[in-house]
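Practice record 12: protein with MTE.
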Amino acid sequence: MAAMAVPSASAKPRDGKNFPIEFELKKSEFSTAEELTTYSDVTRYNNFYEFGTGKDDPFEQAHRLKTEGWTIQVIGEVHRPQKFDIDQLLRLAPLEERIYRLRCVEAWSMVIPWIGFPLSKLLDAVQPTGNARYVEFISLHDPEQMPGQRTAVLDWPYKEGLRLDEAMNPLTLLTLGLYGEMLPNQNGAPVRVVVPWKYGFKSAKSIVTINLTEHKPATSWNLAGPSEYGFYSNVNPHVSHPRWSQRKERRIGDFLKRDTEMFNGYSKWVADLYRDLDLSKHY
Ligand code: MTE
């Protein structure tokens, strides 16, 4: 089957390119049947502080990002540290469509048809050592291409992290595309993670390094505001952010707010990860 066409896009893609390979797009049991957020909103209402703090800054500015020749290195507590280019990633595992809810800590949400494969496939390929307990994600640092990095709004490069068992969970997606095309720059081209049961900031964009560590890595938002942004940052309507109640959310495109679900509606697959954890302390 040829690479999928962009379904019902209300705006012409500006950055998104067709995939360079043909593939059969696998459907997934993890996908929601909820109505998709429009392509236009998915690609024009973004958080990507490397390109500015306004919601349309990434759409306006991310054309500066050069993704040709991109590599991602996987290092640290692994038996087989490796560098992958995008072509190798596209062939590492069958590509799946995962229609996920994305819930931002700012209390808005979207439904996005991502394309990627479980991060666990990449981690299996590098063989974590017995010491590996966490996975750190490091985004590109290049103030020449990323004007937002010329200001100290965050501690650059953007860094995020997961526990190894969270990273290995089948929901955690190494993501290379959306809406049938390669990731547009503003959505984190050419490769990002998507962790749908956590607030959106855990899903680091434009990743260049994945580092497996024994100790919990420092993360950008946690460094910026430790009392506001915890390491876990699981979507949790019962634990409010100091500035935003997390009980409700506005689905982009909707007028009325809706209730936020525990773990963003993914409890069935992830609640067990936190059996022994007090989630009001480990927010
Ligand atoms: N990754 C990097 N490198 N820089 C960022 O500013 N913003 C995060 C996350 N990943 C961000 C990032 C936040 S706050 C959210 S809500 C999501 O990306 C938004 O993803 P989207 O723009 O594709 O919807």
